[in-house]
TrEMBL record:
Segments forming domain HTH tetR-type: 22-81
The keyword ATP-binding appears for this protein: no
Keyword Nucleotidyltransferase: no
Residue ranges: DNA binding: 44-63
A Pfam family: TetR_C_43
InterPro entries to which the protein is assigned, alphabetical: Homeodomain-like_sf (IPR009057), HTH-type_TetR-like_transc_reg (IPR050109), HTH_TetR (IPR001647), Tet_transcr_reg_TetR-rel_C_sf (IPR036271), TetR_SbtR-like_C (IPR049445)
Keyword terms, alphabetized: DNA-binding, Transcription, Transcription regulation
Domain of life: Bacteria
Full protein name: TetR family transcriptional regulator
GO molecular function: DNA-binding transcription factor activity; transcription cis-regulatory region binding
């Protein structure tokens, strides 16, 4: 006598990553973020593995090539900026203070150091990157819209204006080290933020820069 079989076979669940594997992945991403910032996107992967305290085989098991690792680092930095924006909105009752918190926290992530990486030959339109960029755009818009609604942020600036300024000011000038320039970043960011307060003392040339403008640039 045959046993009846189910019309809906059990779905085999993919095994969850082990805790030590997740820790190794996080160590690799952290080490890569630090070394890309300090030495540029072409730093040898073997050096990244050494700083992370893992073997080369472990690094390549998580990230089969440089593009995969660069993409993960970029997404990680963008997601950390999103968390900073969420914290700013949750913790600060002052709308402009939330914008200040977000801008300074984004600079601490050294978003400007991503520029050489995202301008490299890897796929800038990868779904993970697109999703991370959209999350950043949404949180910046929310922070800025709140400050504008409170009458604290001048209305003639756009999300792109803030992103350009943060990226440029958190990226060291040519010929200087990223770490040595860090002590100037927050001073200059605060000068920028003071210039964003409403009412603006002057009329800005051109129009507010949007994220679409940046994508088309």
């Amino acid at each position: 006598m045959q046993t009846a079989t189910s019309a809906h076979p059990a779905v085999r669940r993919a095994p969850r990553p082990r805790a030590d594997a997740l820790r190794n992945r996080e160590r690799i991403v952290t080490a890569a973020r630090e070394m890309f910032t300090e030495l540029g996107p072409d730093v040898p992967l073997d050096d990244i593995a050494r700083r992370a305290g893992v073997g080369n085989a472990t690094l390549y098991r998580h990230f089969p090539d440089r593009d995969a690792l660069v993409r993960e680092v970029v997404c990680s930095v963008l997601d950390r900026a999103v968390l900073a924006g969420q914290d700013a909105l949750a913790e600060s009752g002052d709308a402009f203070a939330a914008l200040e918190h977000f801008v300074h926290a984004s600079a601490d992530e050294r978003i400007g150091a991503l520029c050489p990486m995202v301008s490299s030959s890897f796929d800038k339109h990868h779904p993970d990157l697109e999703a991370a960029r959209e999350r950043v755009e949404r949180i910046i818009e929310e922070v800025m819209d709140r400050a504008k609604a409170a009458g604290q942020l001048r209305p003639d600036v756009g999300v792109g204006d803030v992103m350009i300024a943060v990226a440029q000011l958190s990226r060291p000038p040519a010929g200087t080290g990223c770490l040595s320039a860090d002590r100037f970043v927050h001073r200059h960011l605060q000068l920028l933020l003071d210039g964003l307060r409403a009412p603006g003392p002057s009329v800005l040339p051109g129009t507010a820069v949007t994220m679409e403008d940046l994508r088309q640039a």
